Amino acid sequence: MYLRDVARVELGAETYNTFAQKGNVNSASVLIYQSPGANALDVAERVREAVNQISESFPKGMRQYIPFDTTIFASPAITEVYKTLLEAGVLVLTVVGTVWWYRQVPTGFLPTEDQGYLITAVQLPDAASQERTKSGVQQIKSNP
């Protein structure tokens, strides 16, 4: 058995009695709650429009104000999120572009066709025989 089978359950305030005063003058208050899943910024904008429209028919001297609005920080926060995403995208593009550029630039001061070669000159004493020269070259080739 569930509680919903025997009772009505809802999330709400303990009491809905309110007392409103501004500047030691009694005033009327209207509490507006957002439905679950509703867009808070859209609800706040529509409430402001409705209050402004209704306030045009108020008696002279009566004013309206919204003392508590939890959405005033949401718009700047969303703007900051977009800015952060843009900055992150620029940073990623910068890193990727730098890596790509470094792969395109040669890795040394030697021309590409000279990279990876070791040139050795073998010079034996004057009057060395051709056989001794071949033996010296062979010895160099066999040593890594």
Write the layout of secondary structure elements.
Blueprint: E1 21-22, E2 25-26, H1 40-55, H2 74-104, H3 130-142
Antiparallel strand pairs: 1-2
Terminal CA distance? 85 Å
Tell me the β content.
under 5%
Number of strands: 2
Main sheet: strands, sense, barrel: 2 strands, antiparallel
Count of separate structural domains:
2
Tell me the series of helices and strands, N- to C-terminal: EEHHH
The chain-level mean pLDDT equals 83
The total of helices stands at 3
* Radius of gyration of CA atoms, rounded to a whole number: 41 Å
Residue windows where pLDDT falls under 50 for at least 5 positions: none
| Silhouette | rod-shaped
- Kindly name the structural category: mainly alpha
Strand order within the widest beta sheet:
1-2
Helix fraction, binned, reads 40-55%
How would you describe this protein?
- The protein folds into two domains: 1-71, no CATH class; 73-138, no CATH class.
- It is 42% helix and 3% strand.
- It contains three helices and two strands; from the N terminus they run E-E-H-H-H.
- It has a two-stranded antiparallel ribbon.
- Strand 1 and strand 2 form a beta hairpin.
- The protein is rod-shaped, with a radius of gyration of 41 Å.
- 0% of the residues are buried.
Q: What keyword list fits this structure?
A:
single chain, 144 residues, mainly alpha, 2 strands
